[in-house]
Specification:
Blueprint: H1 3-19, H2 26-33, E1 37-46, E2 52-61, E3 69-76, H3 81-97, E4 103-110, H4 118-134, E5 143-147, H5 153-166, H6 193-205, H7 209-215, E6 225-229, H8 233-244, E7 248-254, E8 257-260, H9 267-277, E9 287-289, E10 302-305, E11 324-326, H10 335-343, E12 347-349, H11 351-354, H12 357-371, H13 380-398, H14 404-411, H15 416-441, H16 448-465
Parallel strand pairs: 3-4, 3-5, 6-7, 6-10, 10-11, 11-12
Antiparallel strand pairs: 1-2, 2-4, 7-8, 8-9
Helix pairs in contact: 1-3, 1-16, 3-16, 4-5, 6-8, 6-12, 6-15, 12-15, 15-16
Bound molecules: nicotinamide-adenine-dinucleotide.
Length: 471
């Protein structure tokens, strides 16, 4: 069985288990579970040395209950039809949980990005867009990609540029892809959004005294010992926010190996070391671990897998020494590991909720692209003026002069970044409590993944039920 097919099976098993707690019509449930469209293409690419290579690419659109569909594009050697379907299904449930009005999708090209030059990656990306557009698998109202493993703002800029060339005069063309560089129609705060969302979510979870007590932890993030796997887009930014909040990074793992330090690792110093040496290993003051997977078994309060799927399995789950697993990556815990962790009283915060910050801010970017105006542009100065006049009136009545710092703090009008971050914070906090409520109703016997899936299924089901097609 390939890595991909088993991942799809895991997602579907989680769906079936959660669906059993709902009273939706079985046909409706089968409809929600099924992937709606699957696109495969292969195309030849000329390498820099003149050789021709055949590339394989997929795009899965899991649900059309809301349009467009939305989900990342991954460049990795594991990509296949099953993997994109599993990830697309997760996107449907994720968007539903955070009330982002999209269906789920995911795509990818089977390649190791490190083996290709920038020019080759650009040719591959542009050709993939051509194929997607030709088959109506891309467009601001159809299907909107974003980054995932192995892709980032650079690839998104190539995608947007190719799409706009193919669709001359299409006014909303920039909404065809998200996480673009700001200069190419992106939005401030998107790059760090998933990591920031992970932080907002965990901060909220750790603020619930009753749940922390059950885990034997005090509320709050300060002093919490954190181990993190994968220092890419999601992992690096999550680590940054946790460190700023006073958490202690006691272990970090990357593809080349892992390091640990009881007193805490300075993230920026580790990143600088990696840039200079090409590896996190041999970081001064830290212990280098022989196998990168060993980091997952370090003693900590919060373990954050932020690299790839299927990292916590029935094999290593019994050896984990954490109180909480935070699924910043998609699908890092297998169903078998879920059962072991639940039996051991380890709380698992499911991917479908905790890494939804990226798609949330992607939604804000898409809205910005469709409205053709930067958030905050119309009201920032106006708000500043109104608050300044208000302060002046208070000064007039009280006879007290405010300091320049007080004036700045109170009169500051919201910029695009302020609005994005506050919208993300509101989303992550607001989405957690309905999941927790269902989890509590399940009576402590079920894991939080089941509760999140029930909430997601109910929301998708409602969209279909409103159509009157299903009983
Ligand atoms: P990325 O490519 O930027 O980072 C992944 C990092 O993990 C890389 O630095 C890589 O070297 C490292 N890595 C790979 N294998 C490893 C291993 N065995 N042990 C330790 N480190 C390893 O990718 P990303 O965008 O940060 O995505 C990471 C995960 O988060 C994926 O599961 C992805 O689907 C999920 N995710 C990403 C986003 C997003 O906005 N980028 C949003 C939601 C979920």
């Amino acid at each position: 069985m390939s890595l991909g097919s088993s991942f799809l099976e895991q997602v579907n098993r989680a769906f079936d288990h959660a669906a059993g707690f709902t009273d939706h019509d079985p046909t409706l449930l089968a409809n929600i579970r099924a992937c709606k469209n699957l696109f495969y293409t292969s195309f030849p690419i000329k390498r820099d040395d003149g050789r021709i290579e055949v590339m394989h690419a997929w795009r899965a659109e899991h649900s059309h209950h809301k349009l467009p569909t939305k989900g990342g594009i991954r460049y990795a050697e594991t990509v296949d039809a099953e993997e994109v379907q599993a990830l697309a299904a997760l996107m449907t449930y994720k968007c539903a949980l955070v009330d982002v009005p999209f269906g789920g999708a995911k795509g990818g090209i089977r390649l190791n990005a490190k083996r290709y030059s920038v020019g080759e990656l650009e040719r591959i990306t542009r050709r993939m867009v051509f194929e997607l557009v030709r088959k109506n698998f891309m467009g601001p109202g159809l299907d909107v990609p974003a980054p995932d493993v192995g892709t980032g703002p650079r690839e998104m800029a190539w995608i947007a540029d190719t799409y706009t060339q193919l669709r001359p005069g299409e006014l909303d063309a920039l909404g065809c892809v998200t996480a673009k560089p700001v200069s190419a129609g992106g939005i401030r705060g998107r790059v760090e959004a998933t990591g920031r969302g992970v932080f907002f979510g965990v901060r909220e979870i750790c603020s619930v005294k009753e749940d922390m007590k059950a885990l034997g932890m005090s509320p709050g993030l300060a002093g919490k010992r954190v181990v993190l796997q994968g220092l890419g887009n999601v992992g690096y930014h999550a680590a940054q926010f946790f460190q700023r909040a006073g958490a202690v990074l006691v272990g970090l793992s990357e593809s080349e190996g892992a390091i640990a330090c009881d007193k805490g690792l300075d993230l920026e110093a580790v990143m600088a070391h990696r840039k200079e040496r090409g590896s996190i290993l041999d970081f001064p003051g830290a212990t280098s671990l022989a196998r990168r997977e060993e980091a997952l078994e370090l003693e900590c309060d919060i373990l954050i897998p932020a690299a790839l799927e299927r990292q916590i399995t029935a094999e290593n789950a019994p050896r984990l020494r954490t109180k909480m697993v935070v699924e910043a990556a998609n699908g890092p815990t297998t169903v078998e590991a879920d059962e072991i962790l639940a039996a051991r009283g380890i709380m698992v915060i499911p991917d479908s909720y905790i890494n939804a910050g990226g798609v949330t801010v992607s939604y804000f970017e898409w809205v910005k692209n469709l409205s053709h105006v930067r958030f905050g542009r119309m009201q920032k100065r106006f708000e500043q003026g109104a608050y300044t006049r208000l302060l002046e009136a208070v000064e007039g009545v009280t006879g007290r002069r405010f300091t320049p710092e007080e004036v700045e703090r109170v009169t500051h009008g919201a910029s695009e970044e302020d609005l994005v971050n506050s919208g993300l914070e509101e989303t992550m906090i607001g989405a957690y409590h309905p999941i927790r409520e269902v989890w509590k109703q399940l009576g402590g016997k079920e894991i939080m993944r089941t509760a999140a899936m029930i909430v997601a299924i109910d929301k998708v089901a409602l969209s279909y039920e409103q159509l009157g097609i299903f009983p």
